[in-house]
Amino acid sequence: GAGVSQTPSNKVTEKGKYVELRCDPISGHTALYWYRQSLGQGPEFLIYFQGTGAADDSGLPNDRFFAVRPEGSVSTLKIQRTERGDSAVYLCASSFTSNTGELFFGEGSRLTVL
Amino acid sequence: GENVEQHPSTLSVQEGDSAVIKCTYSDSASNYFPWYKQELGKGPQLIIDIRSNVGEKKDQRIAVTLNKTAKHFSLHITETQPEDSAVYFCAARRYSNYQLIWGAGTKLIIKP
């Protein structure tokens, strides 16, 4: 597609449930990033992929969070045993390479945990 | 590590006037400074960036200035228009490093 696509755009779930958020980056972009954004805050880094491998997952808050990118394109962020504090907008971004200037963001997936 | 501070958190200007948003950074090795605009319900979008080998860059009504000695950079928007209303984020990183450090954002309100 022309831009970064994220699905679902909105997800409401109950505390304790499992959720998956999907990101389809711009074709040909090797670098992919997940960020979390709470209301009134800047993006908070979660994880960075270069190709298929997670080059840096230091931003994942705990072991309930996991992300994969098995074929070096689409990525899935997985959250187990969701908590109310996980409620936020999850943003995905891609760039041509890891040190190319511009990040291209999707519109985000808004997660609400009741 | 790098830390980026951004001011003000909210800025309200009359349509047609200029707006200035300022950021400071702590890592003197940072050499790439982008500005992103985020409209409601959308992801951030790059509007302008500057590398440390230049002091100023302009693109139509938008300009960014960089003072490496003082470790601060600013976004200038002239002749503001209603569509400029959004949240603006500054960021910084070493160009060889993938990790962007973000400011907290400035909500820009353009009054008609």
Describe the structure.
The complex is a heterodimer of chains A (114) and B (112). Chain A has 114 residues and is mostly beta strands. Chain A is 0% helix and 48% strand. Chain A has strands spanning 5-7, 10-13, 19-24, 31-37, 44-50, 53-56, 65-68, 75-79, 88-95, 104-105, 109-113. In chain A, a hairpin with a 2-residue loop joins strand 5 and strand 6. Chain A is globular, with a radius of gyration of 13 Å. The model of chain A has no long low-confidence stretch (mean pLDDT 93). Chain B is mainly β. In chain B, 0% of the residues lie in helices and 54% in strands. In chain B, the strands form two sheets. In chain B, strands 2, 4, 5, 9, 10 and 11 form a six-stranded mixed β-sheet that branches. Chain B has a five-stranded antiparallel β-sheet with strand order 1-3-8-7-6, with no helix packed on it. Classes of the chains: A mainly beta (114), B mainly beta (112). Chains A and B meet through strand 5 of A and strand 5 of B.
> What is the residue-averaged pLDDT of chain B?
94
Give the N-to-C terminal Cα separation of chain B: 41 Å
Number of strands of chain A: 11
Q: How many separate helices of chain A?
A: 0
Residue runs with pLDDT of under 50 for 5 or more positions of chain A: none
**Overall pLDDT confidence of chain A:** 93
Q: Biggest interface pair, residues each?
A: A-B, 23 and 21 residues
Quickly give the structural class of chain A.
Answer: mainly beta
* Shape estimate of chain B: globular
Oligomer: heterodimer
Which structural class is indicated by helix and strand composition of chain B?
A: mainly beta
